[in-house]
Amino acid sequence: MNAETFDPRRYAGQLTARPGVYRMIDADGEVLYVGKAKNLRKRVSSYFLRASGNPRIESMLDQVADIEVTVTHTEDEALLLESTLIKQIRPRYNVYLRDDKSYPYLRITGDHSFPRVTFHRGSRKVSGRLFGPFPSGSAVRQTMTTIHKLFRLRNCDDTYFANRSRPCLQYQIKRCSAPCVGYIDEASYARDVADAADLLEGRNERLVARLVKQMEAASSRLEFEQAAATREKIAAVRRLQEQSHVVGGKGDFDIIVCASGGGIACAVVVSVRGGMHLGHQSFYPTLPEGTEPAELSEAFIGQYYLERKPPPEILVGVEPVDREWLEQSLGERAGRKVSVRYRLRGRRARLRDNASATLEQALESRLATRAGVRDRLMALQEALALAAPPMRMECFDISHTGGERTVASCVVFEGGAAKKAAYRRFNIEDIEPGDDYAAMRQALERRFRRLKRGEAPMPDLLLIDGGKGQLTQAETVLQELELADVPVVAVAKGSERKAGREQLFLPRQSQPHILPPNSPALHLIQQIRDEAHRFAVAGHRGRRDKARQQSPLDHIDGLGPVRRKRLLRAFGGSRQIARAGVRDLERVDGISRAMAQRIYEHFHQSG
């Protein structure tokens, strides 16, 4: 809708009073903001009735050219949809949590008579039992170490397990009971697995009671060594309980504290399960200027638990906006009551204070790092005589093996940090194999044509991995596309190809520019160049390996997987199929004479 014809007050007045989600959109179709509402008409109208006094909101409203709404059945659906859309669209005026990783779990496998304990990240549709999610990978590994010490469950893979003839080092250091060589029977191992599951689920008292019974039974059978080992296990669980009580008492809860400063935001999540402190993790959400602490708290919590099951209690530093609504929505997702508490006393207040201290330290460290990055950018500006610090940089590299499956990479750094969502790869075609100059030219042409169409911002600095030849290709492409004002530098490894000896080739300079090995500008260039190289190599290897796994039969029109399988079973391989005649081929079930002729011609067309 045209901004000149769009009347926001009139539009808001005709909206439904039902719950839903609204999206503020600018004249270019970009979503500026996503919000939720219990009453769409009332909420959207509130933006345009009077000045908010918030510069961020006023700036956004000046750009609104259209509003779209999605009506939901319930208020909880609106909150869930809002969080989902924010994570997908990442609007400029929303707080959004960049959290691309899947969440870490501890897994006890279920496809073996002697299950193993392992780290798991990815799909939850796996055999066995998953415990978590944990706040970080290190928390999972620390818990795994505790499980191995207490219950001596194996961590080796099934192939290693099946080929053992004597116990490994894990048995020697008392981290495994050696089921691979029969040192423990299946029933006893299953009891240890059950004990570990009880500990992981916080059922410590039940675990201790069962261990006491096992100890007494072993003692009555005069198996004193077994009784002593069980007694040591009980003592270890008791010590763990004591430590847990000091940390957080009983129960499952998360502590979430948020703050912002210096243009960045930080959230720290501390997880306690069954009284066990599982560690903490720091997050750095994208934060629009003028965001209030309560808004930050609500936005972070809603997105953090979008794909995690919330615990019964969430302890926070600042009361979120619409706390009751948030509790109700999280409770719907969890299938039980969820409480968000901000008035705390005693031990829990001290735990929150500790989390706040961790938050303060994380924020200070991030700001210090940002200050260091700013110094590197200013050093790069000075070293290359740029008009301003290069806030957006792109670097290109080429990778191939003997000219096979050439791939070009483009990595993007903004504010001195990698912006991986903006990375691109280009599969290079129709060039002479091994012609790096032609490959670089093709990649640059494809990239900068897209940038001219507005796909992404133009870089403040273009880096090319290579020497004078690659620089010439880049200059030619930029001139042809009328983008000669984009600064470009080629980065060569130097005669000895050692880090710190890089040569920088600049336009209209006959001699390379060499920076001191301790130069912050050089360190930044090396970081970007190495990232481009890594990304290019990974892309090339993936493309090469995929190509080598393909069968020549894959490229025959009309030959599907069932008939391919029959051919391979009949002849034993694609080489034998290539040698077969038409009559031999049509003897295979499902292969007509026409298809047999097509297959034959596919393998003999060059002859």
UniProtKB/TrEMBL annotation:
Compartment(s): Cytoplasm
Domain GIY-YIG residue range list: 17-95
UvrC family homology region profile domain: residues covered: 255-478
Record carries keyword Manganese: no
Lineage: Bacteria, Pseudomonadati, Pseudomonadota, Gammaproteobacteria, Salinisphaerales
Domain of life: Bacteria
Family as reported in the entry's similarity comment: Belongs to the UvrC family.
Keywords per UniProt: Cytoplasm, DNA damage, DNA excision, DNA repair, Excision nuclease, SOS response
Keyword hit for Coiled coil: no
InterPro entries: GIY-YIG_endonuc (IPR000305), GIY-YIG_endonuc_sf (IPR035901), GIY-YIG_UvrC_Cho (IPR047296), Hlx-hairpin-Hlx_DNA-bd_motif (IPR003583), RuvA_2-like (IPR010994), UVR_dom (IPR001943), UVR_dom_sf (IPR036876), UvrABC_protein_C (IPR050066)
SUPFAM superfamilies: C-terminal UvrC-binding domain of UvrB (SSF46600), GIY-YIG endonuclease (SSF82771), RuvA domain 2-like (SSF47781)
Cited function: The UvrABC repair system catalyzes the recognition and processing of DNA lesions. UvrC both incises the 5' and 3' sides of the lesion. The N-terminal half is responsible for the 3' incision and the C-terminal half is responsible for the 5' incision.
SMART domains listed in its UniProt record: GIYc (SM00465), HhH1 (SM00278)
Alphabetized HAMAP family for the sequence: UvrC
Gene3D superfamilies hit by this protein: 5' to 3' exonuclease, C-terminal subdomain, GIY-YIG endonuclease, UVR domain, UvrC, RNAse H endonuclease domain
Assembly description: Interacts with UvrB in an incision complex.
Domain called UVR: residue spans: 205-240
Protein name: UvrABC system protein C
